[in-house]
TrEMBL record, chains A, B:
<dbReference type="Pfam" id="PF02798">
    <property type="entry name" value="GST_N"/>
</dbReference>
<dbReference type="GO" id="GO:0016740">
    <property type="term" value="F:transferase activity"/>
</dbReference>
<dbReference type="InterPro" id="IPR036282">
    <property type="entry name" value="Glutathione-S-Trfase_C_sf"/>
</dbReference>
<dbReference type="InterPro" id="IPR004045">
    <property type="entry name" value="Glutathione_S-Trfase_N"/>
</dbReference>
<keyword id="KW-0808">Transferase</keyword>
<feature type="domain" description="GST N-terminal">
    <location>
        <begin position="8"/>
        <end position="87"/>
    </location>
</feature>
<protein>
    <submittedName>
        <fullName>Glutathione S-transferase family protein</fullName>
    </submittedName>
</protein>
<dbReference type="InterPro" id="IPR040079">
    <property type="entry name" value="Glutathione_S-Trfase"/>
</dbReference>
<dbReference type="InterPro" id="IPR036249">
    <property type="entry name" value="Thioredoxin-like_sf"/>
</dbReference>
Length: 229, 229
């Protein structure tokens, strides 16, 4: 039986691939696992049927033969545990890759998400300029540390892994901020992730959902206040 | 060979158990695994030997027979995978517990950490009250969702798991904010975690480190500006 994931009925990022179902779609594409998608509206996400899937009312979720999962990191780990191609076979290398998955969601994502939310939604707040500068500094610090670890390598720990998948997706939110372009090896790293055929298939799949939901046939509306997911 | 973890030489929370080595200590105590501790100073955390352990220059790290791990969530998962007592044997129940570990670090921790940092370090900003109120609302939303899921249960998914361990530790940072006390079933849940003998042993171990480092013999200095870890 194919697993079923949930995704935004109408993604607030206008199909730019920033919503977290993208991580799960990408992982499923990497391992060649077909899947179904249940689209949920913003109001539907806060109703009992979806809260039973995710107590925090977020997407993505994952359902398969009675198992119900939430948290993109946990879902990607589940997929990686049941298919080859996303985590090394060697036990120690496998844990290192999982550590990078955790670093992506717990160490890199929070300042990047804060920075994005501040840039988009706090423009009229008295603290906007000062706080955005502080957050830019925090993000630059993390990018510098990540860049130093990556060096000239293609991926974080040798071969491509779920750790890279999660990290690349977290970094993609910086597109348009200019911060990623300041760090050439990270900009190349992200581009390397995006160039993977599995990423491309996942991206087109989520984009098609937005296109179908949009009166303009999916033309991104150019309103940066909506480019958050 | 005993594993070695890293912890603050002098924890900025004055031994109140908020630093993230507490999660690893607690997990090791739950499974009865002795461990060694390497203390690192704030400057040492940014130097090459520690950056080789954690590219982001943070504690805790974990070293065991050539394996070097970072990210408290990954370390606790590694411990849980190699000992019984922290994750269910059933595969689906195990993934559910892991999903809660991810929720703790990726969904609950970021707003709680933001709120804590704002309360401590932005007190002199003219917009402090307004921003703190916004963050309180975000934290209350997550607490309400978590409370609804927990209901009258003792633990998040039946038996105590690493998901509870991580969640309780994230919630402990709210102590003193009053926010946790607004949600009785969560306050009880956290107290239930703290009452576990393994938690108590871990707490005393980290507290002893601070006591040994402090000229006052470990008396908490009462300066809330330093109670962050």
């Amino acid at each position: 039986m194919k697993p079923t994931i949930t995704a935004f009925e109408r993604s607030p990022d206008c199909g730019r691939g920033l919503a977290r179902d993208m991580r799960v779609r990408w992982a499923l594409e990497e391992v060649g696992q077909p899947y179904d998608v249940r689209l949920v509206s913003f109001s539907g996400m806060k109703e009992p049927p979806h809260l039973a899937r995710n107590p925090f009312g977020q997407i993505p979720t994952y359902e398969e033969n009675g198992l119900v999962l939430f948290e993109s990191g946990a879902i990607v780990l589940h997929i990686a545990n049941h298919h080859s191609g996303l985590l090394p076979d060697d036990a120690d290398a496998r844990m290192r890759a999982i550590a990078w998955m955790l670093a992506a969601v717990a160490t890199l994502d929070p300042p990047i998400m804060d920075r994005s939310l501040c840039a988009l939604f706090e423009r009229d707040q008295p603290w906007h300029a000062q706080r955005l500068a502080t957050l830019d500094t925090q993000v630059r610090k993390r990018l510098g540390e990540l860049s130093r670890h990556l060096g000239d390598a293609e991926w974080l720990e040798g071969a491509f892994s779920a750790g890279d998948l999660m990290t690349v997706h977290v970094l993609l939110r910086l597109r348009g901020s200019g911060l990623l372009d300041e760090v050439p090896n990270l900009a190349t790293y992200v581009a390397r992730g995006e160039a993977r055929p599995a990423y491309q298939r996942a991206f087109e799949a989520q984009r098609a959902v937005f296109a179908a939901s949009s009166p303009q046939g999916g033309t991104a509306e150019g309103d940066s206040a909506t480019t958050i997911a």
